[in-house]
Amino acid sequence: MLFLNDNMLNVVNTQQGPRHQHLHHVYLNNNILSVGDEVMAEIDHEKRFYTMKNHSGTHILHAAIREVLGTTAMQAGSFNNENGLRIDITFNRPITPAEIEKIQKVVDREIKAATPREVYNVSMNDAVNKYHALAFFTEKYDDIVRVVKFGDFSSELCGGTHVENTSDIEQLMITGVESKGSGVFRFSALTSVKTITNYLNDEFVKLRSEISDLISKYNETKSELASKDLEKVYDEIFAFTISVNNLALIKTKISEFKELYKTYSKQAKDKIGSKNIAKYLETEPTNNEIKLIVDLNMDEMKMLGDVFKNKYQDLVVILVNESAKMLVVTVSESIANEKSAIEIFNSIKDYNVRGGGNKTLAQGKII
Ligand SMILES: [Zn+2]
């Protein structure tokens, strides 16, 4: 930020001028800036504090990637600010979860080592040969370049702002590795305990909310059919303490819960359906036809139709739920060629119906 008299102006961008001047872009709002005015520049300490961690984190992650994947893994670009960092890497094959875990371990090791940062302003020749800095020869460099080094682990040409030693990064978490196509992989990461804790809190809330619908549905049906397995996994999902290690575990448990729920919901539907259709089962056909007003949902109406067709031969079943405005016609296979379900459905006179189906089953809405 800049101070003009006592007014604070937010710096929205900085650039270097042709003679290395620092150019600040600010919005003046209602202030007037005249030639000869003195302004005071001050860094945004919080922004700088987190940007330094993320920038040094970028160097450490980059070196870790190359330690694990080898030097054929080339950086194709990187970005960092106060909120996080990412590195694009070109690599000739997909990166495995085991490799990502290994890269994370190398980063953890380097942060723990508390390696001090070294900075050298030297010739390009010294940078490359003496300090073994990674230089990207597609870029244009000045005669004197700046080398940022963390021990023997990382050495890069860089003009950026960095922490004093690797332990100042506090913590680095790889939050994702995605393929961007044409052999480019994007590593995203966060640094600092505070940022990672906030991220994890958000992730845990988001993940747990993924199953809240299923939980509500389960609560509605559990008096009819309870599932100890589902309840056990549910308890486990909510018992996890929020941590980096538990993130993968909770994701696995949530997939497990969703799978278990699929099986459960079929069983619950069958059980509740059987119970709901019971009161209609005594109905007998007249002239090979059963016509009933029912209080059932669509699945249960089809279930009831099937039960009747198994019980009686050459049967036409017409089921109507007037309050839910639904109608189902189902016809035994044996007579479906002469009396097709869809034709019967379309020629119904008592209701205006709209729907579809085939020879043995037709369904739709009463409009
Ligand atoms: Zn850098």
TrEMBL record:
Its EC number is 6.1.1.7. It holds the Pfam family tRNA_SAD. SUPFAM superfamilies: ThrRS/AlaRS common domain (SSF55186). One of its GO terms (molecular function) is ATP binding. One of its GO terms (cellular component) is cytosol. Keywords: Aminoacyl-tRNA synthetase, ATP-binding, Ligase, Nucleotide-binding, Protein biosynthesis, RNA-binding, tRNA-binding. GO terms for biological process: alanyl-tRNA aminoacylation. Residues 1-201 form the Alanyl-transfer RNA synthetases family profile domain. Belongs to the class-II aminoacyl-tRNA synthetase family. This is alanine--tRNA ligase.
